[in-house]
Specification:
single chain; alpha+beta; four-stranded antiparallel beta sheet; 9 helices; 41% helix
């Protein structure tokens, strides 16, 4: 009969395990702010899919813990669950903190993956609680172990050496189209997790701009590039070196200080229309670029300049 039925039944079992685990985690981490979901619509979508109310999965379950793992400093543990977790796919679990360098965060992520591969023996059942408990119990040791490698590589530096400067980077990314809700959520979530600023315009064409430390913008590109695209490319890469600790200088270089947002630039939209199917209002987009001091990018994206950007003859 339906060849997809066995696959769908297996997937529903995995999704139900995710929902049951989240309910259990909510009961354990019940203090205000300990466990957060950015969009409860993901839970509604998974629940509706399992009950048969919809046959489309438009999102993944993701949530974050905020736990006091450092003195006077809360640490975020970000969790993103693929649809076939726990039996067939591993969760993405990332540690974020303002006081932990990005390179060390990546080493912590690698260590979490290794722990799951080596220590989580029963992967037929949900195990995020086990991993988070292990992180809590061993956080000091994890920090020391991942920091030691960094220090050992840095040991040849002389005692009088100064801290390396930071590179600020702004990437302008152009794609043939962007309609997938899951892909759009991945873009927004990745940019915000990396504390990047900028915007994403879904539809046809799709335009994404991210700005922040180069290590983070490149991590963003490494994350979204493998997603299925008809065509995607970096149209322009802007960089500028900032002195170490120059947070104010870094902030001054940002053109989108309000954070990272999805922008639609659609005029005269009906309430029921899909924004990503609407043609981009070039007028609204040009005004948006001018407002954010980005008029120069018009030529790179579309091959033309407005009068305000064109050089005087």
């Amino acid at each position: 009969m339906d060849e997809q039925a066995p696959h769908n039944d297996r997937q529903k079992k995995e999704l139900q395990k995710q929902l049951d685990e989240f309910q259990m985690l909510s009961a354990i981490y019940c203090n205000p702010g300990e466990l957060r979901v950015d969009d409860y619509g993901c839970i509604d979508n998974l629940t509706s899919y399992n009950s048969g109310e919809t046959d489309r999965l438009t999102t993944k379950l993701d949530y974050r813990f905020e736990l006091p793992l450092l003195p006077d400093q809360k640490v975020q543990i970000l969790v993103e669950l693929p649809h076939r977790y726990p039996a067939l796919e591993m969760p993405r679990i990332v540690i974020r903190s303002a006081v932990i360098p990005r390179d060390q965060e990546r080493r912590l992520t690698d260590r979490i993956v290794r722990y799951i591969e080596e220590e989580v023996l029963e992967r037929d059942e949900a195990y995020v609680l086990q991993v988070v408990g292990w992180i809590q119990d061993n956080f000091a040791e994890l920090l020391a172990a991942t920091a030691e490698r960094k220090e050992s590589k840095a040991c040849p530096r002389s005692a009088g050496a100064t801290t390396s400067p930071i590179v600020f980077e702004r990437l302008w990314i152009y794609s043939h189209h962007l309609k997938s809700k899951m892909k759009r959520q991945t873009i927004i979530k990745t940019a915000r997790d990396l504390r990047l600023t900028g915007f994403s315009r879904p539809g046809k064409p799709a335009i994404i701009c991210v700005e922040g430390q180069q290590a983070d913008t490149q991590e963003f590109w490494r994350t979204i590039k493998p997603l299925k695209w008809q065509k995607i490319q970096i149209k322009l890469c802007e960089t500028e070196t900032v002195a170490a600790g120059g947070e104010n200088e870094m902030a001054a270089l940002r053109h989108f200080a309000a954070g990272f947002r999805e922008e639609l630039f659609c005029a005269d939209m009906d309430e029921d229309s899909d924004a990503e199917d609407q043609p981009m209002s070039m007028s609204l987009f040009m005004k948006f670029l001018d407002k954010h001091r980005c008029g120069y990018i018009k030529k790179e994206l579309f091959g033309f300049q407005s009068a305000i950007d064109a050089p005087a003859s």
